[in-house]
Amino acid sequence: MKLLSMMLLATIFLTACSGIPQEARNYYEEGVSLVETGHYSLAIEAYTDAIEVAPSYADAYASRAFAMRALGMVDAMEADIERAFELDPQNARANVMLGILAHDEGDCEVAISYYNLAIASKSDYANAFNNRALCYESLGNLEQAETDYLQALELDPDSTLIQRNFEIFQDSQDS
Question: What is the pTM of this model?
Answer without folding.
Answer: 0.78
